[in-house]
Design brief:
Largest sheet: 6 strands, mixed, barrel
Distance between the termini: 26 Å
Strand content: 15-25%
Structural class: alpha+beta
Shape: elongated
Number of helices: 15
Number of strands: 12
Number of domains: 2
Strand order of the largest sheet: 3-4-9-6-8-7
Length: about 425
């Protein structure tokens, strides 16, 4: 007697109950896996992308926005701060490392970050091909950028203004790829790294073009005026020279950056420096670990709510499977009694019911896994994020096994309750009562 074949035929005979059981179980599995994967990814982002960044100094605004934009590179910056003022904090004896970053441009949606060489030490990033940036307009690509955009050493490209890919405002200065980083599974994989001078030069050139147009107009007017006042030529040249020197000095003073990433040498700095910056300067200091933990607490409520919904659905799906199997046993009691008279044992009948439950579980896990992947894909597309490969981390085997074990325990319980009539079956009574 082929038990598997009988089990399959029993499932085919009640398609509505089977589909309902599979769908509800798959939905609960998808919710549990999806929520757990999002929680794992969020925790990974906090623990691994922070590195040893203890403090972020930036423009006044939302501290969380400052952290998300400067550390995880997932939001818009709060503004710019004077480089000269921010750089003073790097000389504080309590600070081990102060790394400036500046951005505002992108290429194909990937952010171009101007910074110092120490920036890569936050993420333990190493160059796989090429070399370090040595001069302006040279860039190093994160592994994900090079892989998705198919860029290699020596390639050039034009950046777009803003943090979203667009063709409306493309700069004229070409960036040259001089290095590609090894994969780190951290945020730097999706960044284009250059030096601060590159960011300043790209934007200063545009400002100079506007300034040159204005100066050309003034020179033309001055030339006409000098034709009538030639005796003042030398005096005017001296004033023009002084004006250029004054502009150069002002230009150096006007350098700005997006934020300053700081690592403390002394833990005592955590108690004094942030408060002093927030109270005595026009800048703000944000603590990444504190802000992201606070965000995790807020989102944790939503995670817990959806998790409880998934558990409720799991319980309902277990009850549905129990009802389906129990109903099958009660309706086919006569057929089961006949099988017993032809030599089938209780164990074989129990196997038949168990196989039905296992078939439902297998289909539910396959469909639930598809639901999870599709749900995360559409979620990140809806949020217009092209970085899901980095943001969404693989669910650890231990946590996946816990979910699988919980589902199996629920189904085994449902099967155990459903087979009770088989164990207590009275063959003679069933056959004698059948009309």
């Amino acid at each position: 007697m082929n038990i598997w074949k009988i089990s399959v035929e029993n499932i085919k005979s009640k398609p509505l109950y089977t589909l309902l059981s599979v769908f509800m179980l798959a939905l609960s599995i998808a919710l549990l896996l999806g929520i757990q994967q999002l929680k794992t990814s969020f925790k990974y982002q906090m623990e691994n992308n922070l590195g040893d960044i203890d403090l972020v100094i930036g423009a006044k605004g939302s501290p969380l926005q400052l952290v998300l934009s400067s550390v995880l590179h997932l939001d818009n910056p709060t503004g710019n701060i004077p480089f000269k003022e921010a750089n003073k904090f790097g000389r504080n004896p309590m600070i081990k490392k102060a790394v400036p970053i500046s951005y505002g441009d992108n290429y194909k949606g990937f952010r171009i970050v101007g910074t110092a060489p120490e920036f890569m030490t936050f993420y333990e990033a190493e160059i796989e091909n090429g070399r370090q940036v040595q001069k302006s307009l040279e860039v190093i690509l994160g592994h994900m950028v090079a892989e998705q955009l198919q860029l290699k050493i020596g390639d050039t490209f034009l950046s777009s203004h803003g943090l979203v890919d667009n063709d409306a405002h493309v700069h004229d200065d070409e960036f040259t790829v001089v290095g590609i980083l090894k994969p780190t599974q951290k945020v730097i994989d999706r960044l284009i790294v250059t030096n601060l001078e590159s960011i300043w030069d790209v934007h200063d050139h545009e400002d100079h073009e506007n300034l040159d147009n204005h100066e050309d107009k003034e020179e033309h007017e001055d030339h006409e005026d000098h034709d009538n006042h030639g005796d003042h030529q030398d005096h005017t040249d001296d004033e023009h020279h002084d004006h250029e020197n004054h502009e150069h000095n002002d230009h150096e003073e006007d350098k700005e950056i997006t934020s300053l990433l700081i690592s403390f040498r002394n833990p005592a700095a955590l108690l004094t420096l942030p408060r002093r910056i927030n109270e005595d300067t026009n800048m703000q200091a944000a603590l990444p670990k504190y802000e992201l933990n606070k965000l995790y607490e807020y989102t944790g409520i939503g995670f817990k709510t959806i998790s409880w919904i998934a558990y409720v659905i799991l319980i309902i799906s277990g009850m549905t499977i129990f009802i389906s199997l129990y109903k099958m046993i009660k309706e086919r009691a006569f057929d089961l009694a006949l099988l017993r008279t032809y030599g089938a044992s209780n164990t074989q009948l129990i196997k038949m019911v168990t196989y039905e439950g296992l078939i439902i579980i297998c289909f539910a896990f396959i469909i639930g896994f598809i639901f999870t992947k599709a749900g995360l894909y559409f979620l990140f597309n809806y949020l217009e994020s092209g970085y899901q490969k980095t943001i969404v981390q693989a669910l650890p085997i231990s946590e996946a096994l816990q979910i699988i074990g919980l589902v199996f325990a629920m189904i085994i319980l449902s099967i155990s309750l459903a087979i009770y009539p088989i164990i207590k079956m009275n063959i003679s009574t069933i056959l004698s009562n059948e009309k």
